[in-house]
Amino acid sequence: MRPSRIPTAQLGRLLALAFAFVLTLGFFAPQSRAASTTPAPAGQPSSRAIPVPKSAEVPKDGRPTPGAADTAPDAPKAGATRPAPAPQPKQLRSAPSAVDAAAACDFSTSTGSALVQQVKAASLDCVNSLFNLSGTQAQRTFAEAQLVTVANALRDGAAGYNGTNSASTGQLVLFLRAGYYVQWKYPDAVGTYNSPLQSAIRGGLDAFFATPHAKDVTQANGETLAEAVTLIDSAQENARYAGVVKGLLNSYDSSYTGAMWNAVANTRTVIERGTELPAFIAALQADSGFSTAMAGFVTRNSSMINGGDLATDIGIQLGGLLNFPELKAQVRPLVKDLVNRYPLVGATGPLTMNLAWFAEKRDTGNCSFYGICDLPTRLVPLVLTINHTCSPSLRIRAQQMSTEELAATCASLANQDAYFHRLVRDRGPVSGDVNTALEVVVFDAYYDYSLYAWSIYDIETDNGGMYLEGNPNTAGNQARFIAHEASWLRPSFQIWNLNHEYTHYLDGRYNMLGDFDAGMSTPTVMWVEGIAEYVSYSYREVRYDDAIAQAAKGTYKLSTLFDTTYDNADQTRIYNWGYLAVRYLLQLHPGDVDTLLGYYRAGNWAAARTLLTSTIGTRYDADFATWLAACGTGNCGSLPPLQAPLCTGADVRQFDQNCRRDNANATTGNYSYSFLYLPAGVRTLTITTAGGTGNADLYYNGGSWATTGSYLARSTNAGNGETLTISNPPAGWVFFSLYAQQGFTGTTVTAQY
To answer: How confident is residue 104, by pLDDT bands cut at 50, 70 and 90?
Structure first.
């Protein structure tokens, strides 16, 4: 996404855009760029960090992520109802029934005692099917008077409840649950629920929970009890029955199995959605024993913690209570104990990191109380256990990568670096840019990224990664891309968002003067995102199907794309059409690209804008349309062979990083000598020769002139097409030469590292 630094107020909109946009996958997946200042120390916000799109293919993970369990303090409007959780097949044992199944499942014509008898006589599967009603049948079945009748029947029958479903108590509770669910889903069809039903449902639940057998720790009672606990939330009576929930949390032990376990597990819904109701918060404020019961449930049952368990969920709900000022005094010490009681990684990581999130985000400024001010510092060695240097300009911090994966990533980015320079023909970094190195942070999976990166780097994590460019003119600035492996593509190893982001790093360093805000002073998005997409796809030699499909539509003129900004364009225009525009210009108008980049590198944004809108203007629109039509059929053309820029040193024998010398020549039996100074840490040096006449052989030597009698490597093909790749060459001066087996002229020599 955009490689900028924006006000926090705009971040939510970008997150929404990120969710809407899905890009093609790949080891170096073509995603987006973001930028930020270097993350601040613990306790200090890291501003201007921009998310990149999240893949729609990230597998769902049952474990909670920080912030996902956040609660909303606003109650629903009066009279509104919320759905019960989606109904599941029931395991309650039904009373024997001789009623025809089809007739038993149509309750729309029964009222009063006839309705009660029909519900009690029906099978539980029949009653469960009522969650699917709609329209007129839903209105007749679940009108308020119908639910009042059934709720009163629950009240009247509760006194005889014997802890089993012999009297069909389960059917009555399930019918009420279905009614609330359907009324929430189709309020216009069913009609409103008002005080008569509230009084009736309270009477029914009061009577049920008061009966002694409602506390039986048995499978039979658990089957009805579990539904009754869920009904608390369906009826929005969370506050009234907070004591029931507290009792279940306090009484739970290993004997609560099967349906009794379900009854306790259903308290999670009552707590989570109860926090939307002011009355529930008031009830918790009046009874500090409730939050204590939540904490106690976690500590007594820590053996069940595996990351996606009930103890973790209840603990996280406790952290969510920090949202409410009236509860903070009682909740703070409980959260403090839990966040420091269990390890930050492993099975307890989801619990501790969620609690830390609530402590930091919902009780801001009190990190010292919780003992988490140094949390980022503590997490780095625990989570990012791998610290690998590819070269002086590239380092990888990873949670888990093999030696082979590290080597492959380093090599691919190094080769992409050379590819980029050949493509844009730069002469080195823009003036004042000191972003000499990039740190790539790779979490093992999206879940690990979301669990830990928010704390370590002080960023939002509901996205596909973040690029933090910082200020490229500030000494000591660390550009950083925070990524994760594409775990959904395993066993293939792929890093999500990598190559597009690396292109943004290179583009910012070698093509765009100053920071990102300077570059956005005029519309440059077509180039910024288009070149990142183009390099990612062309370097990896991957067909960009989405862009080709857009080309066939011919939606935009080239002159329109010159005006693209992050505010006036959607993801398709920014990425797909940015790619198409840049590809067209690179292939058919490279001279204009050279001129444009000359202005960008000088920071002459106004001149660049004039070039696009006036000098070029609409001149290429018709040709662009013709090119799009061909590209839409898959015939997008190709670039001529890429060349490195010419070396600039006065001594024609001297080479610099990633440059070429043309017109090398020597008579038969003689040499064309060259030399190159290498910094420490170079992993790969590649020397190539091509073109011209005659037959030149290539020789390389590490510390002295290269000759046929003194060399470390050679390439002696027929003609002038020679290549040498030297792994881990020594720092300092190295030497290579072309020996004329047959006199040669007009040969191009290129050195890249």
So the answer is: low
Say whether both 598 and 676 belong to one domain: no
Nearest to 575 by CA among 9, 15, 52: 52
Buried b (16+ CB within 10 A) or exposed e, 657-684: bbbbbeebbbeeeebbbbbbebeeebbb
Q: Indicate which CATH number applies to the domain containing 616.
A: 3.40.30.160
| Domain match, 624 and 684 both | no
Beta-bridge partners for 51: 466
Task: Identify the domain containing residue 145 by its residue range.
Answer: 82-237
pLDDT at 135: 95
Q: How many structural domains is the chain composed of?
A: 3
Provide mean pLDDT across the span 431-454. Answer: 94
Assess whether 227 and 90 both reside in one domain. yes
696 and 567, same domain (yes or no): no
pLDDT in tens, 155-165: 999 999 999 99
Q: Are 557 and 624 in contact (CB under 8 A)?
A: yes
383 is a domain residue: no
Say how many Å lie between the first and final Cα of the chain, rounded: 29
Write out pLDDT tens, residues 196-228.
999 999 999 999 999 999 999 999 999 999 999
Q: Does 545 lie in the same domain as 419?
A: yes
Q: Is 191 helix (H, G, I), strand (E, B) or coil?
A: coil
pLDDT band at 245 (very low <50, low <70, confident <90, very high): very high
Instruction: For residues 522 and 621, state if they share a domain.
Output: yes
* 48: three-class secondary structure by DSSP: coil
The answer to whether the beta carbons of residues 119 and 191 sit under 8 Å apart is: no
Instruction: Evaluate whether residue 352 is within a structural domain.
Output: no
Among residues 671, 653, 684, 674, which one has the least CA distance to residue 739?
671
- pLDDT tens figures, 641-675: 777 788 988 999 999 988 889 999 999 999 999 99
Which of 237, 264, 297 is the last residue in one of the domains? 237
- What pLDDT is attached to residue 609? 97
Residue 351 lies in a domain: no
Calpha distance 443→497 (Å, rounded): 12
The whole-angstrom separation of Cα 471 and Cα 433 is 9
pLDDT tens across 577-632, in order? Answer: 999 999 999 999 999 999 999 999 999 999 999 999 999 999 999 999 999 999 99
Which of 747, 746, 737 lies closest to 674, judged by CA?
737
Cα–Cα dist 486/448, whole Å: 12
**Confidence band, pLDDT 50/70/90 cuts, at residue 69:** low
What value does the CA radius of gyration of the chain take, rounded to a whole number of Å?
34
Beta strands (DSSP E) in 363-458 are 386-391, 394-398, 438-443
Provide the 3-class DSSP secondary structure of residue 61: coil
CA-based diameter of the chain, in Å? 113
Beta pairing, strands 479-484 & 693-701: unpaired
Inter-CA distances, 14 with 131, 450, 491, Å: 37, 17, 32
